[in-house]
Amino acid sequence: MITSIQNPKIQWVRSLLARKKERYQDKAFVCEGIRLAEEVIHHKQAPLLALFSSSISERGKALLSGCTCEKLEVAPALLDRISDTETSQGLLLVVPFPELPLPAKSNFGLVLDEIQDAGNFGTILRAAVAFGLQSVFYTPGSVDPYSPKVVRSAMGAHFQMPLREANLQKIRELSESTQLFLAEAQNGIPCWEADLTQPITIVIGSEAFGATQAIRQIPHKNLLIPMPGSMESLNAAMSANILLYEVVRQRKL
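Below the sequence we write its predicted structure tokens.
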């Protein structure tokens, strides 16, 4: 049983939890808890390492038995100490970055433009899977999609949705093959009046500033969620959920 925080494996996991540089250097991230471990196993991911403690549940033990990676028992207090959650569930997996292929031809995609709130980013990824998107792109300046809070909020979406960083050239290419819509809080085409049955890419900007000026220079149409109440805007995740649902609604009519 590992009891020292100086153990090399413990130090590695701590670095993956804390620092983006290490995650991208090793192309790996951490999934904590039973629910995320179930997603890892269900989607046939191959963990690189499993840490567990005596507090692991029977459900967790069953998941652990299906892992072929190195499995190390850790003192409960130590696992609680390195955990990014308030209370460890006794199981932590290190998983390689998924390599899901992009579609050959997109007709329903999303760009997250400098979304910096981890909870919003993860919630949008989860919604993207639920509403059947083909891909999600994010711009430089966005929160790291493999940071612990994004991973928890996404609830396994990383293993089901192609996810890529996109520069301006890539977004220009998307605008040439699909209709680019920018989600706007004040001015634009009401979402139920826009034709969302055609191949589209929706850009969701930050709650504070919306889409960046660089993306606004690319040919696009503004997409509006009409709000008769007194609120000026919704947060990024709420806006994305409403617009993605409207796409599905129109395409199912």
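The first strand starts at residue 28 and ends at 32.
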